[in-house]
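Milestone M4 deliverable, item 7.
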Amino acid sequence: MKRIIILAIIILGGISFQSCTKFLDLKPTSQGIAIENSSSDSVLYKNAEEVEAALGGAYGDFKNEYYQLDYFVNGDAQSDDAYSGGDNPANFQIDALKLDATNSNVSRDWGYLYSTIGKTNLVINNVNSCPDPVLTPERKKQIIGEASFIRAFMYFQLVQLWGDVPLQLKEVKSISSSNLAEIYPILFPPRTAMATIYKQIIADLETAVAVVPATAVNKGYVTRGAVNSMLAYVYATQSPHDWGKVSQYCDAVISGGYSLMPEFNDLWNNQNKNSAESIFEINYTGGITDGNWGVTIFRGLDWKKFNLPANDLTKAFDDEQDTLRKNASIIFLDVTGKWSDPNWPQTHYPFINKYRNFTTGSDQNYIFIRLADILLLKAEALNELNDLSGAAALVNQIRSRAKLQNTPATTQDAMRLAIEKERRLELAYEAHRWFDLKRTGRAIEVMNNAVGPDGKKIGYNLTPNRLFWPIPQAELDKNSKLVQNPGY
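Output delivered:
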């Protein structure tokens, strides 16, 4: 028994940590554990300010490295929409679909996501014990709802990237021989089946949707529109898909007062923040304390940038004669004498154009969920429910804004491909493409047929074992209960 306790203390002591109010948030860790400072007082939060600060810390993680950078690498550079660009070997592996368990991005993304889960667990499990009367019962419920949404958002990232992952809903408050049996499974959890993870995600979102506000001026706060959007995503992603639920939750979003921006380009000029089309948007005020440094990774002439637009996507825009969305999404510049790349000539070198304030201390917002995305997801659901005309009407609504003719698709199979193409062109560089291809079962076929600058296949050779990432080797080394994904 003593040896086990000592081992637990050594492991916990070896994990880097930062203090926050009354607890230590340990990271990176595969368990999302947070340990309260030892105290005779069992109340974690003494007043409303401490609770709100803890919730703010969880919200703040939407501005960490995962969501400023890796979120887009994972969704776009891993797909046929972008090459890795830059000079980062970890990104090269992601782009080539040849990850290994020691990849630094894989390890840090696991750590970031579980760190945020640890923060939400603390809020959810301790807010009701706060004695401050300023914190009303209604506000406590709302805080739990907001934290539950954030936790669900993080687990949705995890389950899409890794499949089965540890499910952690509690924090460790102390370590002693008397509670070792209770805390050991929290310290060293096994992987939980994807189906169970999805059930928890849905439960968290259902908790949230009942108590969060319908709308907010700042779309960075959780609203019913954001929650219903996530519910639609989950039911479209988990297997088997529930298209009736997808349609239901899309309808809830569509009826929530959102509307498409009249001009597609106006979404990206950073002059229409938190627009009527935006559902969940990460807001930046700029400067040293609240600048979006992630955009400087994707655009600029000072060094070779990440997420280089791919030839396969530009070909798709050109084949569709979709000039409007192509120009809004991609800009070509001359980089002669600065750097080179085998995929593009220096005189006609592409950059992502959706994030246009790429200066240091940028106030560029990131839109994570918007109405056009939900309309196309609704179209997908209707098509699968054999409502071809309803699906076509929604697709044509999106195409009309892009100044394109109605879709020619007249069969269910043709409409599936039409919706896939429309989502690709509409949502380029918004971190959707890789996950769209995975959930529709099209990733292997599409990726293995992606073409390069010469029109020939790139040769990705994607296999079923590479649809999920490897469990980080460092996590396997710390926790013998974890089992590696097949093929790694």
